[in-house]
Amino acid sequence: MLTVPFAGAPIFTRSRALRPTGKVLPEHARSHNRALVLQTLYSSGAQSRADIARETGLTRVTVSDLVAELISEGLVVELGQREDARPGKPATLIDVARDAFQIIGLDLSEHEVFRGAVTALDGTIARRAELARDDATGEDAARLVETLVDRLLALATIPVLGIGVGSPGVVDPLGVVRSAPNLGWVDLPLQERLAARTDLPVHVANDANVAILAEHGETAPGELLLVKVGHGVGAGLIVGGRPVIGGGFAAGEIGHVVVGTDGGPRCACGKDGCLEAWVAEPRLRAQLDEAAAERDVILREAGRRLGIVLAPVVGALNLTEVVLSGPADLLDGAFHEATVDTLRKRTMAELNRDLRLRMSEQAEDIVLRGAAVMVLSGQLGVS
């Protein structure tokens, strides 16, 4: 199997921009400039060495040296000469070796299944696999993850660049799941465990932090908040183009914020009235099964509780876009309307007139696609 050199620490190890945009200090120059060349090709497609030099501001000698290195590592390929009407020798086009590698992505956030996919470098899903969770927790759940990884690796048809995992709970920069109550995990070294098993680079992060990477496209704003509703409730936040993880690695853990002072349902964490107890998919579906006639009332109350929690965040950061990710049959309609109404009532009107709350267009694949972005960023420095 072709070995891919490690191009940098995992994306969440430190708060860095998701993609390089210019030259840096000499001591960091080579790794940064490698990523800059790769990002230029990944975003713009086939170009000549001279094109890259003009676009990046790097010298032609530097670009030629970096491209030679990347070609030798199998990360860049020459495509042949450009058809050019101008006099002189036509330029040779180069591009990222888009068909040379695949990525394994896992989504552990669903209530009933662990899902995984083999994706291309652009996030296109080639093969899928899933395993029923059957309420497994602790070591049983960890072994299910290992089984799913084995199955996905067997489905890969070319060398694997790396493995990305979106896990519920608090995940530190070393890929240790510090706490995931719904899975019964405490201090589980998931990244180390999977890396030892597969001998591949592995990146593990909170599922909402992974999901927001899929939403953060070329035209996305510098500030974006994504709320993911599934087995639990979490949020991913990008500010100034940088993921926010917090000093204790728990930024976005809004699921265990108590909403209001009126008590509420008992949460898995032991408190009463946590947002997760009001909004998580299993809780909402159980309520709707018991009182189908009260569907809109139940969904509006859940949406209102989410709006109460989000209002201070939206106000403090002056966000203009919030994305909801989760089951559309629950989150669209009455739930969505109540969340928007609560946000507008609880923040300053002149500051929130441009606020947009929308459903994600990534549907159920958002964590899988985000996992691919996480591996690309961690291994190649591109997204």
Could you explain how this protein is built, in words?
It is a single chain. 38% of the residues lie in helices and 21% in strands. The chain is globular. The N terminus is likely disordered. The protein has 383 residues and is an alpha/beta fold.
Ends apart, CA distance between termini: 24 Å
Structural class of the secondary elements?
A: alpha/beta
Number of strands: 16
Give the SSE string: HEHHEEEEEHEEEEHEHEEEHHHEHHHEH
Low-confidence stretches: 1-15
Strand order of the largest sheet: 6-5-4-7-11
| Average pLDDT figure | 87
Strand content: 15-25%
Shape: globular
Biggest beta sheet attributes: 5 strands, mixed
Helix content: 25-40%
Radius of gyration, in Å, reads 22 Å
Number of helices: 13
Features of this protein?
383 residues, single chain, alpha/beta
Question: What is the gist of this entry?
Answer:
The protein is of the alpha/beta class and 383 residues long. Helix content is 38%, strand content 21%.
Structural topology:
Layout: H1 29-44, E1 47-48, H2 49-56, H3 60-72, E2 76-81, E3 92-96, E4 102-107, E5 113-119, E6 125-132, H4 138-155, E7 160-167, E8 170-171, E9 177-180, E10 185-188, H5 190-198, E11 202-206, H6 207-215, E12 224-229, E13 233-239, E14 242-243, H7 275-279, H8 281-290, H9 295-317, E15 321-325, H10 328-331, H11 334-346, H12 349-352, E16 356-359, H13 366-380
Parallel strand pairs: 4-7, 7-11, 12-15, 15-16
Antiparallel strand pairs: 1-3, 2-3, 4-5, 5-6, 8-9, 9-10, 12-13, 13-14
Helix pairs in contact: 1-3, 2-3, 4-5, 6-13, 9-11
